[in-house]
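Z., the sequence and structure:
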Amino acid sequence: MAVYNKNGSEITSVFSKAGASLQQAFDIHGNELMSGHRDWSGMPSTFSTALDSAMSYIQTYVDNHQNAYAFPVMTDVHTYFAWNEPNYIAWHKPNLFPVFLFLGDMTNAYIESQFNGAVDYMQGATNQKLLVAVGNHDFGDVNGSENCWVDGDTLPKEWWIPLLDDSCVFREGDNTLTYYWDDVDNNVRYIMMDSNSTVLKPNGAQLYSMSNLNWLATVLESSGSKDVIVLNHAMGSGFYLVTDIDKENWKKDTGITNINSFNSILLAFKNKSSISVTADGVSNQHNFESTTGKLIGYITGHYHNAGFYDGAGFNKWTCNALTRGGGTSRQSYKGLSFFIVDKELQKIIFIVVRYQNAEFETYEYSY
C-alpha cells in the first residue's frame, strides 16, 4: 500500500531529516493511517487483557517514581502486525513511552509486499520515536534471497533511522549501518548495533569488524553523563530463558567469534576503565573514566523467546517474538516485551506479555 502525506505526495521515508518527527500518513483515499489501523478485532482476549494490564502497571509505576521511564520492544514479526500491536499501544497510552523499539525480522524473507507493509504499519503506528534493527530475514537470510536494502544508492534501512546526522551513524560498505539516538529527557543513549554487519569469513565464522567496534567505543566514550542501552537483532552468544530460575535451560544464539571483544568494550565502559581497540592497523585508546552514565544493558530479539544472560558481567536480554504460526505449543511463548528503567533505584523491570496468558510476567534486575 502506498502512503501519502496530506498534500498528496507519496511518503518514502518515515522521518524527515531535519526534525526527525513522524510525518502524518494517509492512504490513497486520504484516510489517515492512525484512523485506518484502529482495528484489533482479531486480537485474542487474553493478549489484549495482558497488554492493558501491563500498560496500566507501567503507567502507575512511572507516575509514582519520578526518575523512571519505560519502552516497548517488538521483534520477529516475520510478516506484518496482524493485530496492529504498535498502534494498539500508541492509541491506548499515547504519552507513556518516549521510544518504540523494533528489533528486526519484520519480514520472513525480502518480499517487497512484506517489507513495504512493515514500513506502512510503522509509519501509521505511533508519533513516538522509532528505533529499528534489521534482522537476518530482512537482510535476505532465507533461501538465498536478495538482501532488502540494495537499491542503487538508496538504503531502505535509512527509512528507519531517527537521526540522519552522520555523526550518529556508522557506515561500512553497502550493508552496514549502525547508529545511536539520545533521549534527552531521560538522559539515555540508545546504540543500535547491526548483527548483519558482521563479516562472514570463508570458514563460516562471523565477527564484528574492528572498525565497527572502534565506533562503538567512541560513541560510549562521548556519552558523558548519559546511561546507555545497546540494541541489536541477534545477541551473538548464549542465554537462558527468564522462566528458568535455575539457569539450566541454556540456549545457543547466533555465534559471533569475537563477541568477547564486544563484551570487553561494554564491560570497560561499565567499570569506567580504559581499553585499546585496534582497527585498520591503528591502536585506538578509549578511556571511560570521565563518563558517569550507567550501562543499563544489551537488548536483542532473534530467538523468539524471553531470555537473560549475565555471564559477561552486564545484563543481556532477548525478547519474545510477535510472529504467528508454528502450532499451539509454540504460541505459548510469543508476544512482546516492555522495560521499565528506574534510575533512582538502578533497577530494570523486564515485562513479558504472551498471547495465551491473560497475566503478564515481571522480572527484576539491577544495573
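Residues 45-64 form the longest helix (20 residues). The mean pLDDT is 76.

Let me know what you think.
H.
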